[in-house]
Amino acid sequence: MLLKLFAGISAAATALNIASTRITLSGAKLAGLSLLRFAEFYVGSLAAYVAAVYAATELTVKKDEPQENPSKFWQWNMNELAGIVCTLVGAKVTVTGAEKLPKDRRYLMVCNHRSIFDPITSIKAFGAQEHIYISKPENFKIPIGGAVMHKCGCLPLNRDNNREALTTVKHASEIIKNDVASVVIYPEGTRSSEDKLLPFHAGSFKIAQRVGAPVVVTALCGTDEVVHNVPFKRTKIEIDIIDVLDGEFVKSHSTKEIAELAQKMIQENLDRKHAKKERLPENA
User: What is the Cα–Cα distance from 37 to 107, expressed in whole angstroms?
Assistant: First the structure.
């Protein structure tokens, strides 16, 4: 929506700019000048928005103070920023299996982790209002992004400090229990650079087990290709909702068993995609 607004403002500004110059140009030159002016105003609008968000976050967001409730305003900004980033890097996001998502209650969504674009594409697909993301503390230090994450209710998980990690797990469980939002976590804990998943941290699943919440097993494919394709090639990113482990199953099994099952399901999904990709003709 914000990009469309920028386009509208830029088109109007271009028309006013061209009209005010009162110069006579041929059709081709006029079209070229109009395109140049449109690009200038469009980039200027985008830069002004980023500058405004940066100033707002630096001046108003105190990341050392806990965010009791997610901010609707900053969730909207998170959605817009995710959309802008996906557009700029040429990421086309598709979702399969969305009909499997629980409609009547909150859940824990677990995904594989391949790139910094994983949460960005997930926000683009599902929106920031319905999901709160758990991320490593370093990400909350990123200019603009870290502050917006904090205001949206995202939680830092320090795996090197058991006490802090447990506090985050309890907080995330309460978010689900109190119907604030669903929670998204990457159980590998860090990005994998290989096709094979890293071992899942079983403790991640305590978030769901504490409150008997369903676990949505999700596979992400293609996010690691973005950096190789920008700026000349679009990247197809696929988000597959593989299956949902219901709350009773989660409560009756150990977190280690759930972690191993979720990892197996995601690995099998990725292996099928990799095999299918290898079978495709090179120019397909």
Answer: 47
